[in-house]
Amino acid sequence: MLGFISRRLGVMALTMVALSLVVFFFVNLEPNLKKLAISQTEQRASPEMQESWLQRNGYRDGFVIRYGRWLGVIRKQPNVDPATGAAVPRFRYCNEPAEARYSGILQGDLGCSSALRSPVAKRLMEALSATGILMFWVMVVMIPVSLATGVLAGMREGSKLDRVLSFLSIASTATPEYVSAIIFTAIFATGLGWLNGSAASAITQGPSLWNFTLPVMTLAIFDIGYVARMTRASMAEVMTQQYIRTARLKGMSFTSVVMKHALRNALIAPFTVIMLQFPWLLTGVVVVETIFNYKGFGWLLVQAASNNDIDLVLACGIVSVVIVLLTQLISDIGYAFLNPRIRVS
Asked: 11 φ, ψ to 5°?
């Protein structure tokens, strides 16, 4: 197992480097650099002044050098003001050091947000904390509801209850988050007035049923259907196994057979599916947090992309890659422990 984990960590590191190269390349395309130079100089600044700003701050250096500086393996050189000859920080509002230094993501320096005018690490931690609370409550709602739905449907495959629950699961999975958000807002916020259509107050005042139910419902409804369908398929397969028939022939009640024999084995596969919902939730979070004005990770990513905030976009990309790779690793390890028939060599 330790060898397997070591190999997977090595593959994860190579994957992160490869994906970070791709993200860094596309974020630092010429149009994005031009927009950044315009935003950091006067709107009527001449092209020569914009080019001077880019050269002074290292954006005209080679791609490998800029990537190495962003990683923190190549020393950043001081930015010299041509007018005074003094070293000046790239962004004054972030109090970035002006001297030569190793400062990149390996040192914990994620850069400065040019749009939000604050360190990226500070904004990112605040956003991840808010999204972590949202995802926690989504899991609290999604896991028991989806497992119960899948188990009930799979216990008696082909029954009326199975058909009804399967239809609801397929309907919820086929409904995108932005459609669910609009429907729920129209019914429960605008129509009935039971819930708040904005989750902005959940950041300042704390989450409550009034301001937090709609985003949790919107994210959970899609995953409930997907996990329920996987659980139903696993449960239906287990119920056809020979040991289930043997237990029934020995006189055990149907409830005892399900609880003591079928349920444990049927829930092994849904564990992997549940762990893999975290990457799916990241995509849903971007839509849901924007619609409900909840200032979490998804909202921050939209703001970074809309405002051409290069450092913030890069940081969000790295965080997304880390979350996806870690959840896949945890899923593989957990499945190997839960299923004794799996042996990791």
From this structure: -65, -40
Has this prediction a pTM greater than 0.85?
no
H or E element in which residue 113 lies: strand 112-113
- CATH 1.10.3720.10 boundaries in the chain: 122-338
Tens of pLDDT along 136-157? 999 899 888 988 888 888 877 7
Using the structure block, give the residue that is written with the tokens 């988050």.
177
- Per residue in 69-123, pLDDT (tens digit) is 888 888 877 676 666 666 677 777 777 776 777 788 888 888 888 888 888 888 8
**Residue-wise DSSP of 52-110:** HHHHHTTTTS-HHHHHHHHHTSSPBPPEEPTTT--EE-S-GGGT---S-B--SGGGT--
H/E segment holding residue 246: helix 242-249
State which fold the 122-338 domain adopts.
MetI-like fold (1.10.3720)
Direct distance between the N- and C-terminal alpha carbons of the chain, in angstroms, rounded to an integer: 7
Query: Tokens standing for 159?
Result: 């029954």
Rounded to 5 degrees, what are φ and ψ at 89?
A: -70, 160
**Three-class secondary structure of residue 118 per DSSP:** strand
Tokens of 45: 């600044």
Task: Report the half-sphere exposure of 343 (CA within 13 A, side-chain side).
Answer: 2
Query: Could you tell me which of 175, 157, 178 has the C-alpha nearest to residue 166?
Result: 157
Question: Is 112 in a helix, a strand, or coil?
Answer: strand
Query: What are the DSSP calls for 168-192, one per residue?
Result: HHHHHHTS-HHHHHHHHIIIIIIIS
